[in-house]
């Protein structure tokens, strides 16, 4: 518990008859980046607003470490908590210019007055908004407004940073910049909880992910561990030329016989549809395997040597984005009627 900076205990939130969060429990350790994943209506934004004290839970507790190093129920006692920054999805600001807004936020967050100007200038330059420093916020594009919201959330150099879809409306270059900056904040010792539907971004930066579905927590662990538990690791073996249809069934059966030991299927359950599928458009074999690094190497070696007369391997890799999508679908389908927490 010493490293825990944020903890949700059996949190429930209802909007009249709608249960937005149902008995959700998880902990965030110091210096972690935790991703909150789920479709629209899963409860992600509700969870973040509860943590930011914009909403109050119907039951359960949300605790954040205080300046004395003790976890504290934020909805009973909100004083002396570690500094927290929060970005709401699609932020809206009052009519002002960028400089006045950021100065105002820095002041109410008690940032040292003698450092405010240099802090603002540094962040505006970092996110290419410096030349807009005196511009009215109404003149900003959606992407610029989003970057301003991100700057506002970290202006006070908070220990705990809560971000709801921080990359909404950003171009690819800006998304990369935000991602890199989050990693740099983690290296500085910051703790980050981030909600996002951009699953590839979640894989790139997060230590663990919490998967929400219909208000329930249906998975919480590292992506690799969750994939291993749900046995959805895949490999893509792209080949130089298409396989003739009349040869395909025999060839797949032969491949299965050679790689069975590297899968988690029982021999009496082996079918080509469960272990290997073939995509003629690429062309490529899609192989389900046990997720072990040594198995991956052995499968490549087997395909390259034992089948060199049948095809030539051009590319061999483990897909990332599609696996996270499958991970979400499979964990959500696993149990939509009760919460399941993975330690």
Summarize this entry quickly:
The protein has 343 residues and is α/β, with parallel strands linked by helices. It is built from eleven helices and 14 strands. Among the domains are: 4-82 and 159-228 and 328-334, Rossmann fold, CATH 3.40.50; 234-317, Alpha-Beta Plaits (2-Layer Sandwich), CATH 3.30.70.
Structure description:
- The chain has helices at 44-51, 98-108, 116-126, 142-154, 172-187, 199-205, 223-229, 245-259, 272-275, 293-306, 321-334, and strands at residues 4-15, 18-29, 33-37, 59-65, 71-73, 84-87, 160-164, 191-195, 208-213, 216-221, 234-239, 276-279, 284-288, 313-317.
- With 343 residues, the protein is of the alpha/beta class.
- Among the domains are: 4-82 and 159-228 and 328-334, 3-Layer(aba) Sandwich (Rossmann fold); 234-317, Alpha-Beta Plaits, CATH 3.30.70.
- The strands form three sheets. The chain has a six-stranded mixed sheet, with helices on both faces. It has a four-stranded antiparallel sheet with strand order 2-1-4-5, with helices on one face. The chain has a four-stranded antiparallel sheet with strand order 12-13-11-14.
- A hairpin with a 2-residue loop joins β9 and β10.
- Residues 266-273 and 335-343 have low confidence and may be disordered.
